[in-house]
UniProtKB/TrEMBL annotation:
The lineage of its organism: Eukaryota, Metazoa, Chordata, Craniata, Vertebrata. The keyword Hydrolase does not apply. This is [histone H3]-lysine(4) N-trimethyltransferase. One of its GO terms (molecular function) is histone H3K4 trimethyltransferase activity. Its EC number is 2.1.1.354. Coiled coil: none annotated. It is an enzyme of class 2 (transferase). Residues 7-240 form the SET domain. CDD domains: SET_SMYD1. InterPro entries: H3K4_H4K5_MeTrfase, SET_dom, SET_dom_sf, SMYD1_SET, TPR-like_helical_dom_sf, Znf_MYND. It catalyses: L-lysyl(4)-[histone H3] + 3 S-adenosyl-L-methionine = N(6),N(6),N(6)-trimethyl-L-lysyl(4)-[histone H3] + 3 S-adenosyl-L-homocysteine + 3 H(+). Keywords: Metal-binding, Methyltransferase, S-adenosyl-L-methionine, Transferase, Zinc, Zinc-finger.
Length: 478
């Protein structure tokens, strides 16, 4: 077996965590430790006609497979690349007369690949599909019911002429999808569009303060170093957003991934104090008051979610303003409930083109995030980028340019220079730098040029806010 670019890592028995992934050489922040194509991947059910089934790019006009009338591709090239994986799927869909759900399609793709290549180690894989964890024994009643339903639908779909697998093995595959599925996002990393299985990535254990991050770029996932890594160090990624107190993160990890997090940040509850910060000094609020405001914030966040789903953005703004008024005298500037409201308020106000108020909230959000997140966190980078664009729109060119530079520096590490979103940022950085120079030399000229730039829409207006601001990396139902 060739290691296919996997020479610099090895699988090892990690104490108390089953297997783990370890570095064999030194890595610096931004280094790509490995790039891995999906063993198998599918587009989400709701997006099958607007996302290419090969490269997962969102496209305006896609070509449809003339045979099954289900699969869509950018062009002939993507269609040709897809044929090896789609051939069996295509005839099975025609035979079955309808398209099964994404889970069934993914399981079938995995098994057709095993039929073609055998169940041993695939080229460039450190572990085989047989060896991946499935956690079926940890399933609760509800999950078991879903598993049975999936297996039934699978058996209806699976053609009799394909290799037949045992029931236990089929359950194993669904278990693997359930706990190892990785979310694929569109080319700009803004929308979750599909799910795939990456056997090597699966070997990386979780840490709330990881030394690596994963990004989907150009059809492959890249495992990228966030800090200096020495030979022999364990490579870790975070399965959940850090913006939760340790107790909450641990609960979420236990529920979705069936383990107790014992990372340094959880053990020592590092940064919990910042995330729960309350106002200090002579107007220090009582514990009772803090409790009341937190409860009010939780209730408001629920109402906001509902209003957002319904697209009633003015109501979202009203709820945010009302909540901020309650929070401001009581909560500290790094309190996560305050930060959540600031994030939503700045995003929605930007969308409504009320840029000045949005910029004010965005600035406070970024200041808080910078104290909480790892300096090379992808979520932080994306938030700083959004804040920078908001400032630019508000005509605050100095702060805007500063934020865009900051975001660019983070994304160079987390996404790399070839990622479309980093390239977008590079364009913005050059433009805002030029504008800043002009602003410093001649303000009048600057405002004239800005007007022209706004007309040309060089920097795009904010996309419509969604409840899913940045797709979570690991595909797991809540
Ligand atoms: Zn394509
Ligand atoms: Zn087809
Ligand atoms: Zn942890």
């Amino acid at each position: 077996m060739t290691k296919g670019g996997m020479e610099s890592v090895e699988v090892f028995p990690a104490e108390g965590k089953g297997r783990g992934l370890r570095a064999q050489k030194e890595f610096l922040p931004g280094d790509v430790i490995f790039a891995e194509p999906a063993y198998a991947a599918v587009v989400f059910d709701s997006l099958t006609h607007i996302v290419c089934h090969t490269c997962f790019k969102r496209q305006e006009r896609l070509h449809r497979c003339g045979q099954c009338k289900f699969a869509y591709y950018c062009d002939r090239t993507c269609q040709r690349v897809a044929w090896l994986d789609h051939k069996s799927e295509c005839s099975a869909i025609k035979r079955h007369g309808k398209v099964p759900t994404e889970n069934i399609r993914l399981a079938a793709r995995i098994m057709w690949k095993m039929e073609r290549e055998g169940s041993g180690l695939a080229e460039g894989c450190l572990v085989s599909i047989d060896d991946l964890q499935n956690h079926v024994e940890n399933f609760g009643e509800e999950e078991k019911k879903e598993l049975h339903a999936d297996v039934e639908s699978f058996l209806e779909f699976w053609p009799p002429q394909s290799q037949q697998f045992g029931m236990q093995f089929i359950s194993h595959i669904f278990g693997v999808i359930n706990c190892n599925g990785f979310t694929l996002s569109d080319q700009r990393g803004l929308q979750a569009v599909g799910v795939g299985i990456f056997p090597n990535l699966c070997q990386a254990n979780h840490d709330c303060w990881p030394n690596c991050t994963v990004i989907f770029n150009n059809g492959k996932i890249e495992l990228r170093a966030l800090s200096k890594i020495s030979p022999g160090d364990e490579l870790t990624v975070s399965y959940v957003d850090f913006l939760n107190v340790s107790e909450e993160r641990r609960k979420q990890l236990k529920k979705q991934y069936y383990f107790d997090c014992t990372c340094e940040h959880c053990k020592k509850q590092i940064k919990d104090d910042l995330m729960l910060a309350v106002k200090e000094g002579e107007h220090k609020p009582s514990a009772e008051m803090v409790k009341e405001v937190i409860q009010f914030s939780k209730d408001t966040l629920e109402k906001i979610n509902k209003a957002r789903l319904e697209g009633v953005y003015h109501e979202v703004v009203r709820l945010c303003r009302e909540c901020l008024k309650k929070q401001e005298p009581v909560l500290g500037e790094t309190n996560i409930y305050l930060l959540r409201i600031l994030s939503i308020a700045s995003e929605v106000l930007s969308y409504l083109q009320m840029f000045e108020e949005a910029a004010d909230y965005a600035k406070r959000m970024v200041d808080g995030y910078l104290k909480i997140y790892h300096p090379n966190n992808a979520q932080l980078g994306m938030a700083v980028m959004r804040a920078g664009v908001t400032h630019w729109h508000a005509g605050l060119i100095e702060a805007g340019h500063g934020m865009i530079c900051k975001a660019y520096a983070i994304l160079l590490v987390t996404h790399g220079p070839s990622h479309p979103i980093t390239k977008d940022l590079e364009v913005m950085r050059v433009q805002t730098e030029m504008e800043l120079r002009m602003f410093q030399q001649n303000e009048l000229m600057y405002y004239k040029m800005r007007e022209a730039a706004l007309k040309n829409q060089k920097i795009q207006v904010m996309p419509e806010p969604t409840t899913e601001t940045s797709p979570s990396l690991f595909h797991k139902k809540e």
